[in-house]
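can u do me a favor
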């Protein structure tokens, strides 16, 4: 099985969600099913069917998270040597050479990506164009609207 890169923060968020599902959500839905059973006829009991559906979702999500964690390669970028090279986990400050706009992105695992928070997936076109480049290099990013050039201004191991 291929290991999937994940940041320390990404792993922590998944572990917290897993703990919540196992210690709070699962017992709550089990209690709801037991209560709905007490109401009698299960064929026409909407509360029972809703609780069973939620239970299926919770159990599926628990399995999904456990699978992701078992296949994760957690990378703590703060423990890696600072070379100025763009690698998984770093925060990159870029200058858009077309309009002089500065943007900052952190390169993270697929499950952690959130463009609104400045986190891009390691598999995104932007990250693939940046990986391996160094401070001062220009990266060509192919976008649906055309090619865009970014100059790498800084690489931070945060």
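np, heres the sequence
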């Amino acid at each position: 099985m291929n290991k999937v890169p994940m940041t320390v923060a990404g792993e922590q968020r998944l572990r917290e969600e897993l703990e919540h599902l196992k210690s709070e959500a699962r017992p709550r839905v089990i209690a709801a099913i037991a209560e709905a059973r007490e109401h009698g006829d299960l064929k026409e009991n909407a509360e029972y069917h809703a609780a069973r559906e939620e239970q299926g979702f919770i159990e599926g999500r628990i399995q999904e998270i456990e699978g992701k964690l078992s296949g994760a390669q957690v990378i703590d970028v703060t423990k890696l040597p600072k070379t100025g090279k763009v690698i998984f986990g770093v925060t990159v400050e870029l200058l858009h050479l077309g309009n002089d706009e500065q943007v900052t992105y952190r390169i993270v695992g697929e499950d952690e990506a959130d463009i609104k928070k400045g986190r891009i997936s390691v598999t995104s076109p932007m990250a693939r164009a940046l990986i391996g480049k160094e401070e001062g290099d220009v990266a060509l990013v192919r976008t649906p609207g055309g090619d865009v050039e970014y100059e790498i201004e800084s690489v931070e191991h945060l």
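The mean pLDDT is 92. hope that helps!!
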